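JOB MANIFEST
job_type = single_chain_structure
chain_count = 1
residues = 160
[input]
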Amino acid sequence: AATVATVATVASNAPAAWGPPPAPPPQAHTPADPPAAPPADPAATATERPRLIRWPAALGVAAAYGFLATVFAVGLTVSLVDVAVYRTTYLGSVTLPRGVRWLLPIPWVMAALAVIIVVIAVRRWRVPEWSRWGKVYYSLVAVAAVAGVVTAASQGLFVY
């Protein structure tokens, strides 16, 4: 009987002697005890820095350019119709009315927005956040913005 008791004692102590104790089961987190955030990875942070320009911001810049281009085109058309219809002298036909002087800085703002649009388009091709079609679309927007500025410059509209 002593031999059986000794074997039973050795068998009950054997797992502790043969290896580390088993890990306790994981505990469920309660809403009051959220799981700890993983440590910040500098490499992951570096890849997320170009994400500062998202779709709404990029489309906002493009929309601002489009709005200014429309205001400029409509304002210039109205002023040219005014000159053609109501001013019959030579001096009146080669000068802009005083009321449209507010149009003159618009091409400069459009040029600045076009540069921003091009920078956004180039940066977006380097980051996999946008889809390929989104990148192609915004690149076409950038080409159209540059074409608008080049057209305004070729017509001598960059005056002040």
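[summary]
The two ends are 112 Å apart (CA to CA).
The first helix runs from residue 2 to 18.
exit_status = 0
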